[in-house]
Amino acid sequence: MTERILSKLSPRLEAWWADTRSTLWFLPTCATILGVLLSSLAIYLDDYWGLTTAGIDSPWLFGAGADGARGVLSSIAGSLVTVIGTVFSITIVALQLASSQFTPRVLRQFTSDRINQTVLAVFIGTFIYALLVLRSVRSSTDAGPGFVPVIGVTVAILLALACMGLLILFIHHMAQQTQVSYILSRASDDALALIDAFFRDEIDVTPNLTRRDYAQGEGEDVLSSSSGYLQRYDYDYLLGAARDHDLTIRMLAPVGAYLNTRQPIARIWSSNQESADLEVAGNHVRSALVTGPERTLNADIALGVRQIVDIAIKGLSPGINDPTTASQALDRVSEVLGRAGALAAPERILYLDDRPAVFLPRIDFEELANIAFTQVRHFGKQDVVVMLHLVNTIERVSSLVDENHHEALIRHLRLVRAAGQQGLELGPDREALCHGVDEAIRRIGEYREGNRTPVVPDIVQEI
């Protein structure tokens, strides 16, 4: 595991690259530079080959004069400015809709979407290209010999046709991207990618360690030098600090936690207890933390589940009142928890020369289940359909995960029953929920005996 981590890209560089790719300026900036270079190349080729419109008889090359070239390039540049403004407006409206209707946590889906970035980049790059080629057009009546960039104008026309195709694609993609099913699919894919990256297929044999085995004395706290969300640990720096300073390191803050200035983030032990050496070692450990103004999906497994659950909570809010969205979100949650519960929890001990050197906070299936079910149970306790769907979701997850997780899921089922008894006003609704919970608990007991076929609920009427 350690070799695989060390062979990956540096987490600091990876976090910076992930943030850069998720912006709306990176690809357009690259396209602007490319437009400048392409226009210079086209003008150079026209000048080098000495092409003139008088000798052009091919239907595939531009054959009009200087006035025609100016008209074509001016039309392309002028129309693209309007289209770029429209595209930006549609994008901003989509961001506002996603933030208010679903959750602000999914805004990165829109800004990091490759189609949105590509459309903006091609439009801006084509505008820059047409503008720069336009300045090279000269009539024979102007000072100096006339010059019409045949290749340059031809390429501009091709780029304009490509922009029209991309505009149609953008409108279709934006209409699809604002659908809740599409947003939930993207969110669950992000969560599943994190599960596959950090959860393990097999459980490594870990020795039963006591503190005497890896640390002596009280240790020294390492304090945070700034505030922000912990986005990732730099494992290279942590293991490097343990090697260079003969340290044993215990990280105190999990990924996704908010760090205050001067908050203890780690505790270190060293064979050399001199304060000066411990201060240098603490600076080395402190530099291993990747922080930022927001939580990201680089290594934050809990955030992968949180953004799906937030969509469900938003659907249950009185202002939105869309319990169907909450049910769809629970379906996606079941897929994520089913994958996590079938694998072993992420590794929490990093070894250096066969000794435990770094101890990491652990996130396991039970914590993910708490994130997934607690708030949905609280905000949906007055809707019997949502509560029954929550029961079916927990039962479905139980059929997919290891038996060691069944007790935690049964505890959530009992909490669902208690919340429903408190929130449901009608007696038949409470009875239906209690019966559903009792049946789910009974069937989970059968799963332990080998029968892992959950009851499929009626999608038309669940009660």
Question: Your description of this structure?
Answer:
The chain is of the alpha+beta class and 463 residues long. The chain has 3 domains: 2-7 and 205-292, Pyrimidine nucleoside phosphorylase-like, C-terminal domain (Aldehyde Oxidoreductase, domain 3); 19-178, no CATH class; 299-343 and 363-447, Serine Threonine Protein Phosphatase 5, Tetratricopeptide repeat, CATH 1.25.40. Helix content is 60%, strand content 8%. It is built from 17 helices and 8 strands. The protein has helices at 2-6, 11-21, 26-49, 66-101, 107-111, 114-134, 150-177, 180-198, 211-214, 235-244, 275-286, 301-316, 323-341, 365-379, 384-398, 406-423, 427-447; strands at 220-223, 228-233, 247-251, 258-259, 264-270, 289-292, 349-352, 355-359. The strands form 2 sheets. A 5-stranded mixed beta sheet has the order 1-5-3-8-7, covered by helices on one side. The protein has a 3-stranded antiparallel beta sheet with strand order 4-2-6, covered by helices on one side. A hairpin with a 2-residue loop joins strand 7 and strand 8 (355-359). Helix 6 runs antiparallel to helix 7 (150-177) and helix 13 (323-341) packs parallel to helix 15 (384-398). The protein is flat.
